Every structure is written in C-alpha cells, then in structure tokens.
Amino acid sequence: MSNSTFHLPLNLAPDESSPEWMSKGDNAWQLTAATLVGMQSIPGLVILYGGAVKKKWAVNSAFMALYAFACVLFCWVGWGYRLSFGHTMVPFWGIPNVSLQHDYLFTPAFLGKIPNATMVYFQSVFAAITLILIAGAVLGRMNFYAWMMFVPLWLTFSYTIGAFSVWSPNGFLAKKGIIDYSGGYVIHLSSGVAGFTAAYWVGPRLTRDRERFPPNNIILMLMGAGLLWMGWAGFNGGDPYAVSIDASLAVLNTHICTATSLLTWLMLDLVFFRKSSVIGAVQGMTTGLVCITPAAGVVQGWAAILMGLCSGSIPWFTMMVVHKRSELLQKVDDTMAVLHTHAIAGSLGGVLTGLFAVPKLNNLFFGTYGQYVGLFYGIDMGRVGTGLRQMGIQLLGIFFIVTLNIISTSLICLFIRLFVPLRMSEEDMEIGDEAAHGEEAYAIWGDGDRFEIPKHDVELAVTKIRAGGRAARD
C-alpha cells in the first residue's frame, strides 16, 4: 500500500498511538503475560485433560476446554468485562456494556499505565481458565450441550460477581482490604467449589470408569502440566500491571512455592505408598501454584517455601485420607479432584496470605501502607488488631466465594436441566467420544480407519488365515 493511500485508523496522529499516560514497557509485559495465561488453557489444559482421561474421553475432555476458552472470550467483550470491572450497578456488579468501542479501548484502564484494550484481554484469559478448571470436575460424563449452556451462564452469574467484589476498586471486599494478589479466591476457590457443586448435580461417571480411570497418555499430560507451570509466570507476574520489582518477586515466589509443594507431595507418596507417582507430582505442582497465587508478590521467599510445604501436605491429606473416609465426599465424583487442588489449596493460600503478608510489599502492590498487614507482622509491629482484622477479611472472602458458588452453580445446573440432561446417557458413556462427537482421539489402523470385521465374516476370515498358514508351511 502506498503512502498516499495509507491513513492512520480512527484519526489518530502518529504521536498519539503511544499516549503519554501509557507505559510501553508495562503494556508490552501485560500483553505477554496475558498470552502466557492464555497458553495455560490453550494448549495447556487442553492437552492435560486430553492426556489425563481414558482414551474414550480424550476428545470430549479437550474439546470442553477449547469451547470454554472461545465462549468466554466472546461473552467477555460482550458484557462480562464491564460486569466485573465497570461502574457500579449494584454492590457486587458493574454496569454491563460492550467493550469493543475504540473510544473506550484506547483510554486508561482502571489500574496501571495500560489501555483498556490490554486490560480486557488480560482479564479475559483469567475468566476463561476459571471455566476450564471447573470442567475438570465433570469430565467423563457431562452432556456437551449442557456444558455449552453452563459456560456463559456461570461466567455471567457467578464469575463476574466474584471478580467485581474482590478485584474491582468498587467491590465491597476490595474496599474492606482483602488480599487476593492474582486469583486464589476469584479463580481457584471459585472453580474448586463450583466444579464440586456441578459434579454433584451432574452425577457420577460409570461405576467402572470411576473405579479405574487411567490416563491414556501420561507424557501428554506432563506436557500440559509443564505449560501450566511455566504459564503461571504471566498468571502471577502480570497482576501488578507493571514491569516492577513486585512482578519479579511474584514470579520467583511462584516457582519456589510450586517446586516445594511438588517435592513435598512426592515425599509423602513415597513414605506412605512406596511409589513415586507422576500424577501425584502433578497434583502437588498444582496445589503449590494455587496456594501461592493470592500471596505471590506480598510475601517473602521463606514464606513461599512454608506455603509450599503446606500446599504439598494439607491438600494431600484431605485427598488421600479425609476424602476416602468421608461418605459425603465420596458421593460426589470430582474427576480431577478440583475440590482439593483448587478449593482447598486456594483457601489455604488465602489464610496463609493473611498470616505472612508483608506491609511494605503490600505498599508496592496496593500503593497504600498500613492497611494490609499480615497477622505475624501485626504482632511484631504491635498492631495485633490490624493483623487480626486482615485475617478476618481473608476468612470473610472465603465464606463469600464459597456461598456464592454453591448457590449460583446449583441454580444454573437446575435451570439447564429444564432444557437438556446434565449427564450423558449410560449408552453414550459406554462409548465416549464417538457417541458425543463422532470422533476418536487416536487412529490405530491406517489413516483414521478402524479394523472391523463384520460378525458374519469372522468365520470366513479365520478360515482364510488358517489356509494361508498351511500354504506357507507347504
């Protein structure tokens, strides 16, 4: 295109494409961080789920994640972002609106020196991964058409409420001073509780699937887990909305806690089961990532190690001991154990944040000194009341998110059930992917062709094989 025919879009002058209020470095990092988080879902959780289930469920499980990612992004720019971060409509919701107008996208975001266009993208991938984590609880039996309805409904009537309440500057928990650095409450506690609740309403897998559900490809599962771990650098490192020392601390603490948690889980498996379980190591990795999330940039390195020890042991105990002894928990078929890896680990992280949060680091993150004080530092500073208040707010946040997600998820599932079954039929669950989508994950014979012999031809085929064997001997 020649210079004579080129025009800057939207009548922007050349020097207005990077306005003075915007930081190019912060904006570049934010876009990078958002893409890292997006890659945790696509392809991270797509291939983790696809490899972690039985072969007959590989396509369905991966497709649930892929669909959720696309559907959330569409709904997010349509109404979700403004519900979560817009001007207050009611105490827990913003005013819904479309987020695609250039006069909105090119203006400063509610925090940081980045445009709304970047913030909308960044927050969209957080919303998307939350729905994909919920999917982990209902793999192997949820009707895909019910899932197609569940995603936009849950995003609208649950996620946006939690996000506005905890993260929006106008949210009531944000105003009270809750510390949720990067989603321990909004994403992980929400997805864990919602997933477990949805699993209750959907019902269990087939009995034999529930009793024996080996991964069809552990190497593929590990690849997905690796993308999840490395992508967490953007997950936690992007939440200061700036290229800052606080972002650097958040990334380092994330990896320290995760490594400690994985090793702790592995040691417990070795001590009690005499086996070094790969699946167990992935679960320990996940609980470490989740636990550090609400605290990533507001605790010191030694606290990150202690949090890793806790996240590698407490969820291990609830999963391996409490769950197996609890009749109530046994009744709910939580395929990927999101209750333990996300709800319990997220709650644990929120409580430990209330203990270990450093006032000076909170000042770097929130820009306010003295309001956010971990209990241990409150005791040390002679401000016990402030520290206890912080613990109370952290516990209040847990109560609010748990209550919200039990009620909203139950109502959504009951509503969907009026139109389509939540659970696939017994016959379709026997077959799996081919019944749900008409496709299979792996082609064993030729280019997607299956080796099938009609029943009436079996005897003839056996006769020919035996005749060939005799001819070869002769």
Mean pLDDT: 91
Please tell me the total number of domains. Answer: 1
* Biggest sheet descriptor: 2 strands, antiparallel
Ranges where pLDDT stays below 50 over 5 or more residues in a row are 1-8
Strand content: under 5%
Radius of gyration: 25 Å
Order of helices and strands: HHEEHHHHHHHHHHHHHHHHHH
Query: What is the CATH topology classification name?
Result: Ammonium transporter fold
CATH class: Mainly Alpha
Protein name: Ammonium transporter
Keywords: Ammonia transport, Membrane, Transmembrane, Transmembrane helix, Transport
Pfam families: Ammonium_transp
Domain Ammonium transporter AmtB-like: 28-442
Verbal overview:
The structure is a single chain. This protein has helices at 24-52, 58-85, 102-105, 116-135, 144-166, 172-176, 184-202, 207-211, 218-237, 245-273, 278-292, 301-325, 327-331, 338-356, 359-366, 375-380, 384-416, 426-431, 433-437, 458-473, and strands at 88-90, 93-94. With 474 residues, the chain is mainly α. The chain has one domain (22-430): Ammonium transporter AmtB like domains (Ammonium transporter fold, Orthogonal Bundle), CATH 1.10.3430.10. Strand 1 and strand 2 (93-94) form a beta hairpin. The protein starts with 23 loop residues before the first helix and ends with a helix.
